Hints:
Layout: H1 8-15, E1 25-27, H2 32-44, E2 48-52, E3 72-76, E4 83-87, E5 92-96, H3 101-109, E6 113-114, H4 127-133, H5 146-149, E7 150-157, E8 160-164, H6 176-180, E9 189-196, E10 198-199, H7 216-226, E11 236-239, E12 242-245, E13 257-260, E14 263-265, E15 281-282
Parallel strand pairs: 1-3, 2-3
Antiparallel strand pairs: 4-5, 5-9, 6-10, 7-8, 7-9, 11-12, 13-14, 13-15
Amino acid sequence: MQTYGKSLRDLMRLRAGDIPRIPDVVVYPGDESEVQLIVDRVVAANAVLIPFGGGSNISGSLEAPPDETRTVVSIDLGRLNRVLEIDNDSGLATIQAGTLGPDVERQLGEHGWTLGHFPDSFTHSTLGGWVATRSSGMQSDKYGDIADITRGLRAVMPGKVLVVRPLPHTSTGPSVREMILGSEGRLGVITEVTVQVHRIPEAADLGISVPVLGRRAGRHARDLDQRRPPIDHPGLGCAGDQLLLRHSQEVDWNTDFVAGEQGLDEGAGEKGMGPRAGLPVLHRL
């Protein structure tokens, strides 16, 4: 469990019994002070320490080299799984690094907030893992990648705790925050992250965009992006390359809608090909 992740490659290797090097010890710290104790003792023993979050293992960072002769210690941060604080004025939340994606959203949602970061490994990855791997994702284009969302953090290093204050932007450098983002656990064990959160919208938008294929695809993608309406448009919302119709708008769902230069044009026809043929069509879900 602590050696491989949940990718197809890992599952196939597990089924084949291909497990060349497993951790010798697995530890489960309950707070930052215990993480500090573990880090210091592992360093003193000249052992190998591998942080374990959700175990998605997309980049293979959970695996020790097959010929590693030193003691391998896996530090599982699963007990560090709480939202510690939400600042309603600044929209900043401090969350423990071992919190899985669904738990982040559930705990924030209880107070009316959302992080809005949904990588493909959302259900099997943690906030600390997102920071350590500089997480992105196709469903994260609204509020940005984890590098855009992260404001501050705490990371345990040998003999000390690195504290990066939650500042939105600075004019000094080099940025220590940027050094930790994507560091894959090499510089320290992340224990807490302060992130920018957002109020949950009053209404959710659902929609589907039909892709345009062929030579016109690039031109249509550019045109859609250039005329993308603002989010507070009374009848139209936008998320990435999808045009969405608001639930609150009264719509005759028997009619197709085509996104055109003047907004939404009715009368697209059964095939979804209106006056501006080839543009994405919005259908009822």
